[in-house]
Amino acid sequence: MQTVDFQHISLSDGDKLLDLGCGEGRHVIAAYLEKNIQAIGVDLGFNDLKTTANKFGDFYQAENPEKSFGLSVANALLLPFADNTFDVIICSEVLEHIPDYESVLTEVERILVPGGTFIASVPRAWPERICWHFSSAYHEVEGGHLRIFNAAHLRAQIEQRGFSYYHRHWAHALHSPFWWLKCIFWNSQEQSRLIKLYHKLLVWDLMQRPWLTRTLETLLNPIMGKSIVMYFYKPKSAG
């Protein structure tokens, strides 16, 4: 389930891409398959990185020396990369988990090459507020969401660092009601037949990609998409 749409990224052969907070690898693996690039994923969670490595085994193209793939445990506040290293940086559904997220943005600015692309996605404010309203445990668990972002404010913070905004879209509208239900029935969600049925629908949609649900989500994303995705580029020079 990808949140970032690679159609809006000028990814070229030979590029270096970082998936910052890659989790279980959905974007870093997808990026590896897109072009002949060096795809790197970092995360604080070692178990998530192990899951990513296991998944990647099914996609490894050993016969193609023009692309590479790497994973590492790393702290987003102090990344182990030199200035101007990456052509593309993805940070999807990560910033809401980090207390000092502005320092993450500073690190992104440091390691992204001039002319590079930065993509940030966070939970959309109003669907997220419904989750918080129905369940404090949803966001108070260890590693949970620390804030509800105002997308316009986050965009302004990124632009203040010299980035230029060029596109946005929303994603995962069909997942918003699923999380509302989980929050409403938080203490009994494992026994909820309704949640189980909805989960089966989401898995079916993910695996089969049927026209009906794909069209429905496309229509609903601007209204109730759970995530907002914003695309920026770093100017090649101050002038």
Task: Summarize the structure in short.
By secondary structure, the protein is of the alpha/beta class.
Write the layout of secondary structure elements.
Blueprint: E1 16-20, H1 26-34, E2 38-43, H2 46-56, E3 68-73, E4 86-92, H3 101-111, E5 112-123, H4 125-134, H5 137-140, H6 151-159, E6 164-171, H7 175-184, H8 193-208, H9 211-224, E7 227-233
Parallel strand pairs: 1-2, 1-4, 2-3, 4-5
Antiparallel strand pairs: 5-7, 6-7
Helix pairs in contact: 4-7, 7-8
Describe this structure in words.
This protein has helices at 26-34, 46-56, 101-111, 125-134, 137-140, 151-159, 175-184, 193-208, 211-224; strands spanning 16-20, 38-43, 68-73, 86-92, 112-123, 164-171, 227-233. The protein is 39% helix and 21% strand. The protein has a 7-stranded mixed sheet with strand order 3-2-1-4-5-7-6, with helices on both faces. The chain has a domain at 6-123 and 141-172 and 225-233: 3-Layer(aba) Sandwich (Rossmann fold), CATH 3.40.50. α2 (46-56) links the parallel β2 (38-43) and β3. The protein is globular. The relative contact order is 0.15. With 239 residues, it is of the alpha/beta class. The mean pLDDT is 96.
The order of strands across the largest sheet is 3-2-1-4-5-7-6
Number of helices: 9
Q: Helices and strands, in N-to-C order?
A: EHEHEEHEHHHEHHHE
CATH secondary-structure class of one domain: Alpha Beta
Number of strands: 7
Mean pLDDT: 96
Short key terms for the protein model shown above:
7-stranded mixed sheet; 7 strands; 39% helix; single chain; alpha/beta; 239 residues; Rossmann fold
